[in-house]
Inverse folding.
């Protein structure tokens, strides 16, 4: 039996890892956008790099609005 070339498998693995990082980066950016939009609607100013003081109620409203926006986005078929 012949052995498969490990070079092709390593190259495929690097390509897959690169695609995964790109997808994760896009997802992170989208979540950040949803969070910022939802916080703005609730009246909470989220400053990047700092922990904003908010109530549990505000945090729950932001999370709920994020989910609502994500569901609407999926229904529209956009990112």
């Amino acid at each position: 039996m012949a052995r498969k070339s490990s070079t092709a498998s390593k190259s495929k693995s690097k390509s897959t890892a690169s695609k995964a990082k790109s997808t994760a980066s896009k997802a992170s950016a989208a979540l950040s956008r949803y969070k910022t939009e939802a916080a703005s609607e609730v009246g909470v100013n989220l400053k990047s790099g700092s922990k904003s003081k908010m109530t549990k109620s505000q945090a729950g409203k932001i999370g709920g609005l994020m989910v609502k926006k994500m569901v609407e986005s999926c229904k529209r078929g956009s990112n």
